[in-house]
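Q: Purine/cytosine permease, please. Structure only.
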Amino acid sequence: MKLYLPITLALTAAFAVVAVAVVRHTDFGYTPAEPLTGVDLWAVLVAGVTLVGSGPLSYTTSADFSRYLPRTTSAKAIIGWTALGGFVPSVFVCSLGAFAATAVDMTDPQTGLETILPGWFHPVFLLALIVGTIAINALTAYSAGLALQAVGIRIRRSRSVLVDGVAAVSLTLYGLLVSSFLDTVSNVLQLTVVLLGPAMAVYATDILIRRNRYDGPALMDETTGSPFWYTAGVNPAGAVALGAGVLAAALSVNTLYTGPVARALGGVDLALPVGMTVAACVYALMMRTSDNVLAARGRGRLSERCGPPARGRPRRGRPGLSERCAVRCIRGHCRTVPRIGSVPASSPTTPRFPGAVRRPADASRPPWRCPRR
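A: Structure for Purine/cytosine permease:
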């Protein structure tokens, strides 16, 4: 993580030189031989927006950065800087590519750019490409290993990264030796919106309908009694919403194939907006009466204690059960939950329950687990 700042600064300097060289050779009076109009213009425009959006959508490892931020970090700052960091580079780099296409043949970007870059800068340019690729894939490999473990496969972190590495190298060799590498990468980036667009929509919708209020300890509970266990460990609403969004997006694609929706619209690719909209709407409708969502929105009832008051002094100086637990009752279903203040304030799993009774936190004691009811 500490190397990312110097690497970012070095790559910024290198690509600033590329930007200057491209702008100097840009033909600002360039006009296509056959200007696009009507439906064709909108089809290309939407395809370009989809390509730009596929970048941040494909880089879902962003959470591995944010989890290192202090808990006191401003939510507005996180959203603002993330949006700025995702928007500006995408628009800038895509615009730079369009400028370069007016001066050189960008079918092979590396060869094309070398004709307008200074001779001394060629090795620096290649080194920047290599370092940038390594920097991106380092965190990607780390997150891919975590994802492989998260699906329930019992495997060491180092081995999970090796498995992901073998799969990635195999796909790269296929792109280089069997098919056109640039076409393969372009198609993969455009098709990522079919899956990741609806997935991100479900995630964002869940945050909105819960008002970003999550039961930290319950999220970490992988037992069948967890409120987040749902049905056999799968949230039906999320699965159905994701499936509906992917299906809607797949019908609207115009990349490797032309979907029926895209064909009816004259080739306009609406996979990204359609997939995200369908997934978000389906998920919001199916989760509107969920106990977890009602609790997060403050519509549940939190009673004063878990059960009968503890008799005598708590053992080994611990707070009694009624002091560190409370009962959450929603639509007749009750379960015990930790009170706010019964876990250390510095703990990343400190719950935020609407209406919970606050008590002084004791940072010297570990978080408590309350019995299930």
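A: Brief note, in case it's useful. The chain has 14 helices and three strands.
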